[in-house]
Amino acid sequence: MFESVSRRRSRVAVVASAIVATAALILTGCSAGTPGDESSSSSGSGAFPVTIKSALGPVTIDKKPERVAVWGWGAADVALALGVVPVAMPKMTYGGNADGVLPWVADKLTELKAKTPQLIAGVDTGEVPFEEYVKAKPDVILAPLSGLTQAEYDKLSKIAPVVAYPKVPWGTSWQDQTDIVGKALGLSAEATALKKKTEDNVAALAAKYPVLKDKTFVYAAANEPGMINVYKATDSRVLLLNELGLKNSPSIDTLDAKKDADSFFFQVSYENLSKIDTDLLVMYFDKQSAVDTFTADPLVAAMPTIKEGRFAPIVGEAFVMASSAPSVLSIPWMLDRYVPELAAAADKVK
To answer: Order of strands across the sheet with 30-32?
Structure first.
């Protein structure tokens, strides 16, 4: 699922004249610049106008947004954690409830006594439904962890100011995403406090399980027959485990033959699994039966990490999403349950 979104190269059509006309009516607070401009604000945290740079171009938000829309992963989590309920956010068919709302998001909406926002379809396929954003009439569209193309960014920017990723698609850390969303909403101080609280909680877990420190790991997924997808050092899944004291296996760089900067993963065939040299193997699976099928393959079963119990699978769609899109809401929801399992695998490293 996640990799198919990465590979997609969208074919962006011209906006229908009726949509453009509607978008023009609601477009407020946005001024475009050139890539590489520095972020700025008139006078510190919470002050407007504020300019936020991204890999797709900087955007200036002239006043505090009142109608916030979201695209991609995690930004809705940050907004909600800051007490801002989006008017529109992605429908998460993978890992979400019957309505397409992730469990930690549903919990926060209940805590805030808020109704479920308009749910935007398409994030699981990567196809941006522009018409739905026109209907939402946002003041800003937050997409700091997404796979927006330049064409999609330009098209969305006709609807409202768009805050995209700072460097690469799907490569924004949860800390950077928290900072970016906080700045866009005029809540930088609150975002900093929220980030510190989350970092302190992660550090406390790392201290509770010192066996994790300096163990090497590979984070992968078995989404195609006979292949695994190995996540790179810039991926948010990998970065979160680094915070627990784990180190990336050197074999990751060795096996990444193409070094494609536009992709957050690379593929390794089952025939080359023996070349993976790591203390721990972390992978995600929709359900336990998928784990069993994977480990039953003879080439997989021969891996030292599998034979010696140094395998720590993340099982269940909601847990997969929580680890794939870590945020200030999903991290506490997931890590308290998963880290003991990870530590148990680390205990078996000789």
So the answer is: 30-32, 59-61, 50-52, 40-41
